[in-house]
């Protein structure tokens, strides 16, 4: 592509019909403008302008060239605007609706990094149940929704879908941490803190033990993933819980919790989906946060074969 400065010189000369007038408009010397045009004509091997006594007029080749130049300048301006958007030169507001476990684990470091890169964008995070997340995005109360097991919903478009596999979550010094991959039967040797019946984890885990023909009753139940993690971190309890690697990504990074793969085929996983309104206005700030969340999930996927990204972008 021709250099942007050359494009602007050529466009202005064509508009003014004069190198001197173009130079005055561009606030440069006439010799600089003339030199650029002569070099371009030399490269093309043909004149761009007819040199008339009182003005310059485009040659047929110049007419073809100037049409390309002006379209290129318009495209370049769009690119510059997009770059400014990506650099956070423009502000905005974004609301993310997600589950409490994700709001307390995966999302905070994403938001922190995002705000550092885009300080003029204000971010709100709402912790809701899955059905409420759907309603929040549909109503416009939230721009993005991130949740497990979101049903296909008219009016919502999935932007990223990840299948996650449940595993045993323990401390780094827990006996199970040294046995990865472990079996469901191995977990019965320790107290289990499990998501209660309001959470899909409950059904998945109870079904897995039943299919494996293992008698199982959780020692503790809660609808709070934060509580489940806290019980596991308490070394006095020696507890085990069942979550996906995404749920404990930050704790794994810090070394406070360990994800142990369960080899039994009976323990299935969940689907994590990032959604937005199908007919929502395309907003740069929302796009940027969406990309930041997808980048984080992709990074977790890269670290482990236990997460299979089935669709990273539905643009």
Number of helices: 12
- Name of the top-level CATH class of the largest domain: Alpha Beta
Overall CATH architecture of the largest domain: 3-Layer(aba) Sandwich
- Total count of strands: 12
Integer count of domains: 3
Q: Would you list the SSEs in sequence order as H and E?
A: HHHEEHEHHEHEEHEHEHEHEEHE
Kindly describe this structure.
This protein folds into 3 domains: 4-86, Arc Repressor Mutant, subunit A (Orthogonal Bundle), CATH 1.10.10.10; 92-156 and 276-295, 3-Layer(aba) Sandwich (D-Maltodextrin-Binding Protein, domain 2), CATH 3.40.190.10; 164-269, D-Maltodextrin-Binding Protein, domain 2 (3-Layer(aba) Sandwich), CATH 3.40.190. Mean pLDDT is 86; it is low at 305-315. It contains 12 helices and 12 strands. It has helices at 4-16, 19-26, 30-44, 60-86, 100-104, 107-117, 130-139, 184-187, 200-211, 225-233, 249-254, 284-303, and strands spanning 49-51, 56-58, 92-98, 121-127, 144-148, 156-170, 193-195, 220-222, 241-244, 258-260, 269-277, 307-311. The chain has 315 residues and is of the alpha/beta class. The strands form 3 sheets. Strands 3, 4, 5, 6, 9, 10, 11 and 12 form an 8-stranded mixed sheet that branches. Strands 1-2 form a two-stranded antiparallel sheet.
């Amino acid at each position: 592509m021709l250099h942007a400065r050359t494009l602007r010189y050529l466009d202005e000369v064509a508009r003014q019909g004069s190198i001197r007038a173009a130079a005055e408009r561009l606030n440069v010397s006439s010799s600089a403008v003339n030199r650029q045009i002569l070099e371009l004509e030399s490269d093309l091997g043909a004149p761009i302008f007819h040199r008339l006594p009182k003005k310059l007029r485009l040659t047929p080749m110049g007419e073809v060239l100037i049409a390309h130049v002006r379209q290129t300048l318009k495209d370049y301006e769009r690119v510059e605007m997009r770059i400014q958007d990506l650099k956070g030169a423009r502000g905005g507001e974004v609301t993310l609706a997600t589950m409490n476990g994700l709001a307390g684990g995966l999302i905070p470091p994403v938001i922190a990094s995002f705000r550092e890169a885009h300080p003029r964008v204000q971010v709100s995070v709402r912790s809701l149940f899955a059905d409420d997340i759907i309603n929040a995005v549909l109503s416009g109360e939230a721009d993005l929704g991130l949740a497990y097991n979101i049903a296909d919903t008219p009016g919502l478009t999935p932007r990223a879908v990840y299948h996650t596999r449940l595993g045993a979550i323990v401390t780094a010094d827990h006996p199970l941490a040294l046995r990865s991959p472990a079996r469901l039967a191995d977990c019965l040797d320790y107290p289990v803190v499990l998501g209660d019946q309001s959470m899909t984890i409950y059904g998945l885990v109870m079904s897995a033990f039943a299919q494996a023909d293992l008698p199982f009753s959780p020692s503790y139940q809660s609808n709070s993933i934060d509580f489940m993690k806290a019980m596991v971190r308490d070394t006095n309890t020696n507890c085990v819980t069942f979550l996906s690697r995404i749920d404990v990504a930050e704790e794994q990074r810090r070394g406070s919790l360990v994800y142990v793969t369960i080899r039994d085929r009976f323990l299935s996983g969940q689907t994590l989906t990032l959604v937005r309104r199908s007919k929502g206005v395309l907003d740069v700030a929302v796009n940027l946060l969406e990309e930041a969340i997808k980048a984080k999930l992709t990074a977790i996927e890269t670290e482990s074969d236990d997460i299979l990204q089935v669709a990273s972008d539905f643009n």
